[in-house]
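Email to the structure team, subject: Fibronectin type-III domain-containing protein model.

Hi all, the expression group asked for a predicted structure before they design truncation constructs. Nothing fancy, just the tokens so they can compare against earlier work. One-line instruction: predict Fibronectin type-III domain-containing protein, return tokens.
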Amino acid sequence: MHKDSVTIEWNKPKDCGGLELIGYFVEKCDVSKMVWTKVGDVEKDSTHLTIRRLQEDSQYMFRVFAQNSVGISEALESETVTIKSTIEPPNPFPVLPQSV
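Reply from the structure team: attached below.
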């Protein structure tokens, strides 16, 4: 996770309804607005997507749908994620005992 993007991963469906999997599509939801927006289509052999242009310190949820020729699956939905930079300032030095 970076300050403006996140990569999500999922497992392939156990059952594709007896038909070949066509692919996936992914949606995001800014929790403050509670509106779902499509952010990408993913080929059937891939199970990850990097979502960019997110707002740092904002909370999002993501959901993935599998597709075959008949329709789409129920959503696989994430927990709420807060976007934060993975780079942080150093921790303060520990205080060492003084020798006497």
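The mean pLDDT is 86. DSSP finds no helices and seven strands in the chain. Ping us if the truncation boundaries need rechecking.
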